[in-house]
Amino acid sequence: MAKMGLEYEEKIKRAFIKAIDRSRLSYFKYCMRAGSCAYACHFWLVDPRHELVPGIKGKRVEDVFKKEFTILGKLKKRITGEPLITIEELKKWVELAYGYCSLCDRCMLACPYSVEFPPLTLYMRVVLHEAGLTPESVKKQVENEFTIDHPYGITKEDWLKIIDEIQSKFDEEIPVDKKGAKYLLIPGKRSLKDNIESFISTIEILLKANEDFTLSSDLWSGCMSTYDIGAWDEMAQLTRKRTQIIRNLEAKTIIMTNDACGYYGWRWLADKAIKERLGFGVIEISELLADYVKRKVIKLDKSKNDFVATYHDPCHLARKGGIVDEPRVAITASVKEHREMPHHGIYSICCTAGCLQVDEYQDTRVKAFKVKLDEILATKANVVITNCDECFYTFKRMFDEYNVKDIEIKSITEVFADAIS
Ligand code: SF4
Description:
Bound molecules: iron/sulfur cluster
Number of helices: 20
Radius of gyration: 22 Å
Number of domains: 3
CATH class of the largest domain: Alpha Beta
Number of strands: 8
Largest sheet: 4 strands, parallel
CATH topology of the largest domain: Rossmann fold
Shape: globular
Helix content: 40-55%
Strand content: 5-15%
């Protein structure tokens, strides 16, 4: 059993102190290891091993916590001389926290005591970040955010070219760096790389609605994956920097489009990360689309989307973010027929990404996707609609893996823009 140096152990201890908040200590007390959480987890459902039960993953965090932060645990540690945590255990955490958990929060709904297991997996990620053991593909995203301001390698030069290209598609002028606009539109972190159509269609809708909006030449990603990676100090730094850009533009509200974790992060975490009020509002694009439908701002023709669609709720939007009804209002007004999956809304099954592609664990994620695929097939829909380009990209990858040829994946903005009559 490999032991760690004292300095390393100190780092782990600090990470624990940073990650564990008092309100969540009760989880350790209330988890009865009943196992009902297992049936909510897509990873466990396809690979029902004891160590993959969410509550059992959480117990590993509890065991380390007790060693350092309880009197009995400290005493036992001193007598036995055992380390706070071994390297082998930390490596196991990498596998459990990244290979077998997408932080989808679904297990929490299944718990009779509402114990939140996902934060415990997230604590694992915080510790792994401090220990420098985060999977390389994920580390790279954080590095990119600091070096080029985009997790997937889109530079400022690329962004300015993209703006020019999009502008060439419209007669109306697309405002850039307009001060005091009602809305600042921020592209989804995955959109500029893997689904530019979703972003173009968002602009098309805003222009059609004569909306007072702008783009920023300095802000082309509102990515908040640093939170899910456990890189919380980095998240605070990036949020501070981006908040300043938004404030300088004096935008009243930011629109997050096709970016579930971006929306969740800005709406629910950003002010806590920088420890001050943002001073601007945060909305998700479907909130605006639903409003346009209700106020009849844009005329829609359902017959233009002559297919049967089902909607995938991104976990960071529905379960974590509270956006459930708005996408449905927009979709039912835009497509011929909309059918719900057996589990939808806050009970929706995760696409397996959890807003993060972890290249090192594609195999476990491909396997877990079977649960989602069965949900989709049950609807007999020919189009899956979603409003997160990380989910969009995951569906594309997974449909290839499962050789699904007859179901298309579309973004909510693409479908809405196509329905404009
Ligand atoms: S958060 Fe989701 S993926 Fe992680 S253990 Fe819970 S149900 Fe499984």
